[in-house]
Amino acid sequence: MNMKTKLSLLAALFFVGLGFSQEIVQDSIAMKEKALKEQKELLKEEQKKEKELEKLEKEKDKAEKAEKKAEKAQKKAEKEAKKLERELKKREKAEKQVSKLNDKIKNKRKDIEQHQQKMMKLERKGKLSPNDKVKWNEKILKKEKQLEDLKKDLQKAEKKRRKL
Questions:
Q1: 26-68 tens-digit pLDDT
Q2: What H or E segment, with its residue span, contains residue 44?
Q3: What is this structure's pTM?
Q4: 24 vs 20: CA distance, rounded Å
């Protein structure tokens, strides 16, 4: 083989190698472009997922706030109900007290009247000594004082009931 053929073979090999290397460069560029495109798509998907997560977080926060608000409103309503129940019990208690005092006053009046009648009956029959008469009058006076105290208590109870 002569030199000319060797050189032409060498040149042919060089150009063939150069051609292959260009294809490799083009293939590597295409691969890089493809990889870059895939990275962009992955990045877009990640960003989309992050946005969805943020949206879900916001919705979760909203739901939690709404739940807390509802709980607070429920507690407030329960507190108000308890307050109304206490007020109702106070009113009922005041009503009972007034009724109870009215009954006591009625009974005390009846008791005073019975004592006066008994004293008059004994006096008519002549079985009442001056000392007994004083004792009977003291008993009646004591019961009348108790009656006045009950009337004062009744006035206080009625005043308290009106305030409620």
A1: 667 888 888 899 999 999 999 999 999 999 999 999 999 999 9
A2: helix 3-125
A3: 0.56
A4: 6
